[in-house]
Write the structure tokens for this entry.
Amino acid sequence: MKIGKITINFGVAVIIFGIIFYLQGNSIVGPTTSFMYSNPKWILNGILIAISGGVIMGMGIVINLRRPK
């Protein structure tokens, strides 16, 4: 099982969700009826979620580099 690749893919998915939440908070994407739409709190939440995804992805890269092939 390639845990490093799974971790990288999970990190990328979290980054994508963070970007979507950031854009919804900035009123760029999403339905206007969403509670996240035009909500400044979700701008910060989206940034923090995307950063968390980057950390998870980085951990996956480190796992891939440290495992013997």
User: Anything to note?
Assistant: The chain has a mean pLDDT of 93.
